[in-house]
Specification:
By secondary structure, this protein is mainly β. It has one domain (about 5-90): Thrombin, subunit H, CATH 2.40.10. It is built from two helices and six strands. The chain has helices at about 5-10, 50, and strands spanning about 10-15, 15-25, 25-30, 55-60, 70-75, 80-85. A hairpin with a 2-residue loop joins β1 (about 10-15) and β2 (about 15-25).
Length: about 110
């Protein structure tokens, strides 16, 4: 039995964990465990975009140096689940030297 390559393309690296890509309307989101995030975002609606965006968080499956930034749209530490999306690049400062921002929506 072989796993369909289209299915395996949906699996991504989230730092040292894994997640999977889903399409939601016109964008792609990553579903992963909340414990895979470097830290949980603030638990209030007034959080700044820079507080909910993580640089170098995502990469292709098996990549040990993720280079894709993502914004945490939802995190539940009790259920250990989080939803990540593409950050609004126009609202963010330029990335730090040595890092790069790529989109998960490509």
């Amino acid at each position: 039995m072989t796993i369909d390559t289209d299915v395996t393309k949906a699996i991504v690296t989230v730092i040292s964990g894994r997640g999977f890509v889903v399409e939601a309307g016109h964008e792609r989101l990553v579903i992963t465990a909340a414990h895979c995030l470097p830290h949980l975002p603030p638990c209030h609606g007034a959080a700044n975009l820079d507080e909910t965006t993580y640089d170098n968080l995502l990469g292709p499956f098996g990549d040990h140096e993720p280079k894709v930034s993502a914004e945490c749209r939802f995190a539940d530490p009790v259920a250990d689940i989080s939803v990540l999306g593409s950050p609004d690049d126009q609202a963010l400062c330029p990335p730090a030297p040595g890092s790069s921002r790529h989109s998960i929506s490509g």
